[in-house]
Amino acid sequence: MSRASSLLRHLAGAPMRCWRLTDLAMASGLHKATVHRLLGGLMAEGLAQSIPGGYTLGPQAWLIGRAAAQRFDLSSFGTPLLRRIADETGDVALLAVLTGHHAHCVAREEGDSPILPTSIRVGAVRPLGCSAHALALLAALPDAEMERAIAATAPERIGRYAPITDEYLRAGVAETRARGFAVNEGVIVSGMTALAVAVRDAWGRPIAAISCSAIAERLLPERRPDVVALLRQEARKLEARLHPVSAEPA
């Protein structure tokens, strides 16, 4: 089930394009035969479909997403908050949601300061720990779930994310928990720094993360407290918007 879910996350990460079988296998770290078999099951349930050129999400995925959006429409809830962050900082504000062992960017707002063209865009999916917002989410998980996420994403981190080893992630989690926010200083994109805080649901579990990214010289240590305070302020507003009236089970 986790492997099929991984394929769905990759399909969802590029909703306006189709995936070739070879590319989907490479991105997911699974053998082509395994991907083909799993896609057959997903297509049988309407969660994926085959179109000229490859594979994409199916109609049942849209129906499920539409139902979930009634509670978790984070992009529409979060966009005004991101706009405030971008306006006040002049930098890029991102909102990413936790999906399994990945962080999926669902909203982005830009300020008026220069940005790097390689900065994260809407639709990007990163393994937990492989960006500031992905690290904030990883650090907010209970220890056992954090370790499962590190183990699950290890195959994906070979290559593009090679500097982000298991040991690097554990150290990053410890530092994030100690300081109360995540920092990424050019680990993946040279010359860029990002700060992030987690957003939690009514039960205290991480559900999303808000981040601010900029060229490195704009997020030097002396400026970070003010930016983090702004991120926390907007994160609390988003939590208030998302929380149900009562967290008690029915």
From TrEMBL:
Entry keyword annotation includes Chloroplast: no
Domain IclR-ED: 60-244
Record key words, sorted: DNA-binding, Transcription, Transcription regulation
PANTHER family named among the record's database cross-references: HELIX-TURN-HELIX TRANSCRIPTIONAL REGULATOR, ICLR FAMILY (PTHR30136), TRANSCRIPTIONAL REGULATORY PROTEIN (PTHR30136:SF39)
UniProt source species: Pseudoroseomonas ludipueritiae
InterPro entries given in the database record: GAF-like_dom_sf, HTH_MetabolicPath_Reg, Tscrpt_reg_IclR_C, Tscrpt_reg_IclR_N, WH-like_DNA-bd_sf, WH_DNA-bd_sf
Gene3D superfamilies assigned to the protein according to its UniProt record, in alphabetical order: 3.30.450.40, Winged helix-like DNA-binding domain superfamily/Winged helix DNA-binding domain
Residues annotated as domain HTH iclR-type: 1-59
Protein name: IclR family transcriptional regulator
